[in-house]
Amino acid sequence: MRKIRLALISLDWIRPKDPLTNLGHASILATLQKYNSHQLTFLNNHRYSVKHCPDVEEFSENVVKNLIYDEPDLIAFGVYIWNELHTQLILKKFRKRIKEREFISFGFTGERKGEGRIMIDYLRKPLILLGGPQISYAPINTLEGYYPDADLFIRGYAEKALSQIVETLSTPVKSSTNMISSYQFATRQKYFLRPITTTTPNISNPTVLLHKVKGLHQRDHPDLGIQATVDMNSLPSPLLPVESLENSSSSDNNVSQSNLINPPVIPLNNRSFIRWETQRGCPFKCTFCQHRDTYKNRQSLPPPRTLSEIQAITSSPVNDIAVLDPTFNSGPNYLSTLDNLIKYKYKGKLSLQTRFEMIKPEFIEKCSVLVNELNTNIQLEFGIQSIIKQESLIIQRMNNLKSVKENSLLLRKNNIKFEISLIYGLPYQTVESFKKSIEFVKDLGAENVVAWPLMLLRGTELEKKKEELGLKEEILSSVDLDSELPKERISEGIPHVVESPSFSKDEWREMMRIANEL
What we know:
Layout: E1 4-12, H1 23-35, E2 40-49, H2 56-70, E3 74-78, H3 84-100, E4 104-108, E5 118-122, E6 127-131, H4 133-136, H5 143-146, E7 152-154, H6 158-169, E8 180-187, E9 190-197, E10 216-218, E11 242-243, E12 261-262, E13 273-276, E14 279-280, E15 299-300, H7 303-314, E16 320-323, H8 334-343, E17 349-354, H9 361-372, E18 377-385, H10 389-394, H11 401-413, E19 417-424, H12 431-442, E20 448-453, H13 461-464, H14 466-469, E21 472-475, E22 495-499, H15 505-516
Parallel strand pairs: 1-2, 1-3, 3-6, 5-8, 6-7, 13-16, 16-17, 17-18, 18-19, 19-20
Antiparallel strand pairs: 4-5, 7-10, 8-9, 11-12, 14-15, 21-22
């Protein structure tokens, strides 16, 4: 078995309260620890924040230097809209550096001159693997065009797929030669030799992967557009200790080592805020959103895991939880989750993304217990986006406004706080229609009303129809924006829709000004 050197790259939009490791990245790390610890000789977790990155060139060069130093066999990136620019530049620079260093050199295995045998030194070319929403939702046969410097791509949930890739790469392959080669690399003007053998697979051409890993696409092979799936029951929690299922035998005494218990990837004992999930997928089909799952494909975390996490959370300093479920109150287990939070007396802040039309009496009841008996600070987040019929139809986000009014009244009666979000820059929207949406939601008594600019996320229906709808995008920076306008809800370096047949760029800027004053 060959042991793999893996470098995981996380380029995050880290906000002040966030852990250094995002939840998705942490779930991948926990899965590798559980299932692949015996197949990894090196696992380096690179975490960077790309928010307010003043010099993308310098930033990408530093990342490349760290990767060169690691000498990994496999480099895996999570690609999101906020790190697209950074990822592209890093890949380009890394491939250039590798190409510049293509050579064959010679060395000796003996310590003194004349001893040992000649070693032929080959430059190892790491495989570059990309996953994340920018990959998952890219149209079929477009990935090589978007990312000419990458080798492998995972569509869908990456935990199991990446685990299988590591397993496959570590599987021995017979070779017709017994020649041993080594990899020579320079660091701090010294040369080091790391032995490898040619009896192991050539990972620069891992054709064997194609039919073994669901959701994996390899460059220069047919793109099937299949999404990787995962059994939520098999995933370890990044918030709890992770037990490695297998461990290699000791090379000294050939005695099998006991399973290793790894500490949580996201430790709870030193932080007050976490992001948390209880389910994945969303039953709705909003045309601006990348959640394209159906009721059938949604999955909830197993109740025993959710319960264990709640027990760990309530016995830790954590007092602020943001639940990432796209629609918390649409899953099969959300009521039991609230029951367990009540049982273990969670008293901190709890933010839940919900839908007005799916509010049920039992949901109100349990939230009321948390708020009025335990003094939990619950904040429900409702994405209404627009109340204008034409705008709502094009984004497939119709709201029953009568139900919205009735349920907001119920929430206020039970002292349950809620926030409402809108989007500006929508097709058919005008400054006046945006103001009408604001006026409606302000009358509902929400504690907060926020508005976000429209971004065309890859693979969404709006992104596919942007030319038909006449939507024009721009990548904004602080130079593009008026210095006196706050920019908390504008992400620099990310394309935003700033013009359409129904509003000019100046009118879009007026909507931005209104949004920033909410």
